[in-house]
């Protein structure tokens, strides 16, 4: 009786029960990276993040905690504000007033995940919210307009995928602007990525048609959006690569005729398909789909839109897992990216060979002249009535570096560093000129004082001199 009276409670019970089981599954399959630097910046103490990972203080002297070079231009700052729920890694920061770098020894060549944590707190000496700076990673400008990622209201995390090839170190530069002369970071993660996270090829979509894009793994990538479709937020604790997946609600533009689904069974990862590191169970366990309720296939599409910055190419990764069908060969649908037909008559069962088995597809599109990147799913000519006619489980959008080897702006790393140096030279020359002028003034004034001391004043002889003083001849 209680089950029928409170279906919402029953659903919540099974959802959280399954979530707990998924968490145990994630812990048992946790990825173990070769390079794994977790740095608590501006602190001599180690601290534990909310996902139970241990961040070492960069001032601790531990060889696993690189101290920033040019340390005379770097100093720690402590957040003394009252933020009881704030994770401990945001209670300190390393602050820079000139270009400074962290150098991380690399054991494993290949793609590395770089995450930078920022929380612009106030102190008696500095307001980190007023800082402006650039960040360079192995010669790639990953951040130029720091104001777009720092906040004094909540912590912000930027994530990049950088390939380390024929190099023994990964180097992160923090370069304050001339106007601000202030940069900072609260925490740094440098983690070697799984080999299958970034493949070599993807599908390039344009008005000219579909073609292969080679060398994808050599591109620098910035994670712009990581979205779980139809499900709740996924925290780093429930992801084997410690990622955050946000719900799709704010990006959903057209959902008429669609419904959400949560799957309580086991996700069947298989060789050659998506691994648990590519996408976690909790993401593939939820979906948004289109269902035919009668003898006709609905003529609707479900569409998502993601605001982007123009001038870059974008990698769009779409995640699929048929958690809805009762048997193979029933689900056929089309996939559209930026209005282009990316996949026609997609049949997941022919690719994976089983139900509840994940698959992902990578597409590259140009972001020139548009403000939003769109993704849509809908029935195809092969769709069947009375069954599900489209499904999507997750979306990732990543910005690719431009021709300047930059993910943020039109300047290259060399220019950023050279511009700082030339700016300092200009300031130095101005300072020297000012000193010279002051010395000149000092010398002139000093000479006048000395001359005044050696000077004997002249007095006029009296006109009525006494005759007694007259010299006679």
SSE inventory with pairings:
Layout: H1 2-5, H2 7-28, E1 36-40, E2 47-48, E3 54-57, E4 74-78, E5 92-96, E6 100-105, E7 110-118, E8 133-137, E9 140-143, E10 156-164, E11 169-176, E12 183-185, E13 187-192, E14 201-206, E15 209-214, E16 221-228, E17 246-247, E18 252-254, E19 258-262, H3 281-284, E20 286-291, E21 302-307, E22 313-320, E23 333-337, E24 340-346, H4 348-352, E25 359-366, E26 372-379, E27 388-392, E28 394-400, H5 413-454
Parallel strand pairs: 1-3, 14-25, 16-17
Antiparallel strand pairs: 1-13, 2-3, 4-5, 5-12, 6-11, 7-10, 7-13, 8-9, 8-11, 10-16, 14-15, 16-28, 18-21, 19-20, 20-27, 21-26, 22-25, 22-28, 23-24, 23-26
What do these coordinates show?
It is a single chain. The chain has 473 residues and is of the alpha+beta class. Helices cover 16% and strands 34% of the residues. It contains 5 helices and 28 strands. Strands 1, 2, 3, 7, 10, 13, 14, 15, 16, 17, 22, 25 and 28 form a 13-stranded mixed sheet that branches. β23 (333-337) and β24 (340-346) form a beta hairpin. The chain starts with a helix and ends in a 19-residue tail after the last helix. The model is unreliable at 1-28, 424-437 and 453-473 (pLDDT under 50).
Average pLDDT number: 85
How many angstroms separate the termini?
152 Å
Global morphology: elongated
**Helix content estimate:** 10-25%
Number of helices: 5
Low-confidence stretches: 1-28, 424-437, 453-473
Strand content is 25-35%
Q: What's the short story on this structure?
A:
This protein is α+β, with helices and mostly antiparallel strands.
